[in-house]
Description:
5 helices; alpha/beta
Amino acid sequence: xxxRRGGVSRPPYExxxxxxxxxxxPSAVAxxxxxxxxxxxxxxxxLVWMEQVHGRAVGVVDGPRDTPLEATDAVVTKxxxxxxxxxxxxxxxxxxxxxxxxxxAAVHAGRVGARVGVVPAALAAMRELGAEPGRVEALLxxxxxxxxxxxxxxxxxxxxxxxxxxxxxxxxGKPALDLRAGLWQQLADAxxxxxGVDPRCTVEERDLFSHRRDPGTGRIAGxxxxxx
Length: 228
C-alpha cells in the first residue's frame, strides 16, 4: 500500500497521487507511477492499472498492457513479475494471492462493488487459474472506517442484506457501514484461509487520500504481484 508521501504532485494532490482521472497533471501522475514501479523493483510496463467504475467486472491478464483495463474493478493474473494495482481514496482495496498457484488479484471494493459481489467474482476468476480459497491470503487495505462512514438507514439495510456484517454505527450513533467488516465475513465464508486487515481509516489518517474528507483529492494504490 502506498501513502500520499514521496511523490511530485502539487496541491491538492500532494504528493504521491497515482490516480490519472482526478484532474492532476498527467506528467506528475506518470512520474509517480514510475517511482512506484522502481520502488517495488519492476519496470513501469509491468504495472497493470484499471479504469474503475464501481462494478463487478473482472479482467484476467497474461502480460503487460499499455492502457488500463476498461470498466474493470478486479484484475487477476498468474504471470510472475506482473504487478496489479488498485486505486482508492475511501473504498476498500482488496489484495488476494494464492502463493502455491502463483495467482494474484487486486480488487476495488467500494460500497456499490462490494454490494454486487466484486470480491466473489475475483475469487471465481482466481479459481479458474488454479487458485484454491483455502490457500488464498487476503489483505483488506486502508479505507473509511465504520465510525466515519455515515449513510442513510435504508442504504445501510440494503448493503447489509447483500454484504452481511457491514452494518454499524458512527461515533454519534448514526447509521453507518463498515465495508471491511462485511468483506472480512464474505472472504471467511468463501473459505479464504488467511485474512489481514490494515486498520487505518482514510478519513482519519492524513497520510492517506480521502475523497470524503477532501473532495477532489488524489488516490493511493494497493499493489500485488507474484515473484518468479
